[in-house]
Structures are given as C-alpha cells and as structure tokens.
Hints:
This protein has a seven-stranded mixed beta sheet, sandwiched between helices. It has nine helices and nine strands. It has helices at residues 3-20, 22-38, 54-62, 77-82, 119-126, 147-153, 162-169, 190-199, 212-225; strands spanning 41-47, 64-72, 89-92, 104-110, 130-141, 173-180, 183-186, 230-233, 235-242. The chain is of the alpha/beta class.
Amino acid sequence: MQTNLVKNCFEKSFDKYDENAFVQKILAENLSEQIFAAKNSFDTVFEIGCGTGLLTRCINNKITFKKYFANDLTEKSKNYIAKILPEFTFIYGNAQKIKPPHNIDLLTANAVFQWFNNLDKFINYYKPYLNKNAILAFSTFGKDNFSEIQNITGLGLNYLSQQEIINILKPDFDILYTNEYKYKLDFNTPLELLAHMKNTGVNSLKKKIWSFKNVKDFCTDYMEKYENITLTYNPIIITAKFK
Length: 243
Ligand SMILES: C[S@@+](CC[C@H](N)C(=O)[O-])C[C@H]1O[C@@H](n2cnc3c(N)ncnc32)[C@H](O)[C@@H]1O
C-alpha cells in the first residue's frame, strides 16, 4: 500500500472517525480486555497506528503502565492522544520504518496491521526491541473483510487469514488468545455505505478515483447483487507472548 495515500485518507477522516468507527470501537474494547487478561501492568507500552485514540483510551482505563509511546502515520494524531494521556512520547511516521523505542513490554495496534505490506518483515524488525515475555496484542482483518466491496469492485487489501498470521508468529511467540468473527453493518443505501467507509478512512484501498459514474455504477451493481445493504467486517484478535 502507498503510505501517503493511507495517510491522506485517515487524516481527512479523523474528525468523523469516532462517530463512525463502530467496529473499531468494539475491537478496541475486546483487545484491551485481552491485554488485561494477559497482564495488567507494563513498564513500556508502544501503540502503533493510534489514530484518534480509541485503543489508547481503553488501555488507559484498564491497564497501568510507566511509559507510553504512541505512533501514527499522521502527526494530527498526537493532538488526539494528548487529550487522553497526560504524558506520552509520540513517534511520527510509517511504523514499518521508524526507529522503535527499546525494551517494549507491550506492543499493540488496533485495526492497523491490515495496511502493512509485509507482517512477517514487520515482526522481524521489531523483535530486537521487545523484552523477553513482552506481549504482542493486536486486532486486524481477515480475508472476508469488506467482502461486498471485493465482490463488486475487485478492490481490497492483501488480507491474511488467522492461520497465516499464527504461522508468522509461532517461531518467536507463544499464542495466548485468538478470535476471528464476522460483523455486519446495515445501511439504507449503497451511498451511505460508501460514506461510512470514507468517514473511517477506508477509501484508499487502491489509488482509484471515485468519479460520479464509478459511484453510480457501484450503487447499481450493489442493488443488483445484494438484497440487503450491508458491509461485512472480518476482525481477528490475537495476543501472544514473546519467547
Ligand atoms: C483504522 S485506523 C485505527 C486507529 C486506532 N488504532 C483505533 O483504535 O481506532 C488505522 C490507523 O493506522 C494508521 N496507519 C496506517 N498505516 C500505518 C503505518 N504504516 N504506520 C503507522 N500508522 C499507520 C492510520 O493513519 C490510522 O490512524
């Protein structure tokens, strides 16, 4: 994925994100519960792709920590985190390329890794920065995510299956928890569905210009193919302990 495109789309969506990101909010709650179940106190937390702070808020409410490092592709994110945490260090930039903090005890990300080009490479890059027994806790999306959009437009990210992710982690991590499910959101019109995607930053599935004709064709195709207007989310939650 082109990170500039992802950055621009999320930056534009931030003001409307929290009121539209229903699924990401549920995931942040579930993920923070699983972090708490693994361990409730950490010295150093590093959150990747913190966005407007949905997960940051949940972690801050449930878990104690000494140092919090927060990262996002967009600098605007820092202002949102500053409203949640009195003290933190913001590391701006592409998490696949930045210099991470040392001695991480909790590495976490809510609804971010699906944007990464190569999860395997990312995990290998972060290993030297993890303490022994560090917790890796994240949510991402599986192969059926936005199946309606994939079906109609052919557009989609290179989603990994739960098993593919487990296979990447297995050599270096003990898997503590995995869960995969489907969640369908209902809409009144296909146009409403597209607006939902835009307001949650997900109109950067490819560098495609949505002309008036594209939007019209999408709406027609959707109505022809589906009886109800829904958008399927396919979340995967994983927690694991670094060996
Ligand atoms: C779906 S939002 C999730 C935001 C937040 N984690 C939450 O719980 O709502 C994805 C976030 O990941 C960020 N992001 C995407 N790719 C990234 C990358 N390569 N490095 C850092 N952040 C990234 C986006 O800017 C966006 O804020």
